[in-house]
Specification:
CATH topology: Pyrimidine Nucleoside Phosphorylase, Chain A, domain 2
Distance between the termini: 12 Å
Oligomer: single chain
Largest sheet: 4 strands, parallel
Radius of gyration: 15 Å
Shape: globular
Order of helices and strands: HHEHHEHHEHHHE
Structural class: alpha/beta
Number of helices: 9
Strand order of the largest sheet: 3-2-1-4
CATH superfamily: Nucleoside phosphorylase/phosphoribosyltransferase catalytic domain
CATH class: Alpha Beta
Helix content: 40-55%
């Protein structure tokens, strides 16, 4: 990206279009899911370049094993060999399909894996699996669509 091309005004405009496009996401953004023990949201991008395993999923499991409450959005592969949902499915680890179940999962298991499509079904139905390369959406959608009350957000970015 050249300096000045991805401006806050442009991002705000794109975000407004996303909210207009997906009424469910708009509702969740206006009224985020409350989490009793404020959790950390973990997301990442970058494996598109290296075609490696999903590091943010591994980091989420590691953090939760130390007692840190974690929320991790997941989807099937968009531009890499596998996505977090693919990995979790093969391991038999459950994925929450409804945002309302996140607080109970965090309370009982210390971690909640939630499908991004649960927060933005219209967007996911149209764009899930369609980004063959890194785009601005690769970076800001994972953070933007998880409408939960978290205390922190961790976003990892592989060298691109």
């Amino acid at each position: 990206m050249r300096p000045g091309r991805l401006t806050p005004a442009l991002l705000a405009s794109v975000w407004a279009e996303v909210l207009d496009f997906d009424p469910a996401l708009s509702r969740y953004i206006k009224s985020p899911i409350p989490i009793q023990n404020k959790a950390i949201i973990v997301a990442a991008s970058g494996k598109e370049t290296f075609k490696t395993f999903n590091i943010s999923t591994a980091a989420s499991l590691l953090a939760a094993s130390t007692g840190v409450p974690v929320i991790k959005g997941v989807s099937s592969s968009v531009s890499a060999v596998s996505g977090a949902a693919d990995v979790l499915d093969s391991l038999g680890i459950p994925i929450e399909s409804q945002p309302a179940t996140i607080p109970d999962a965090v309370e009982s298991d210390g971690i909640a894996f939630i499908s991004y499509a649960a927060f933005c079904p219209t967007y996911a139905g149209r764009y899930d699996g369609v980004f063959p390369v890194l785009s601005p959406f690769s970076f800001f959608m994972p953070a933007a669509v998880l409408a939960v009350e978290a205390s922190r957000f961790l976003f990892g970015l592989g060298r691109v």
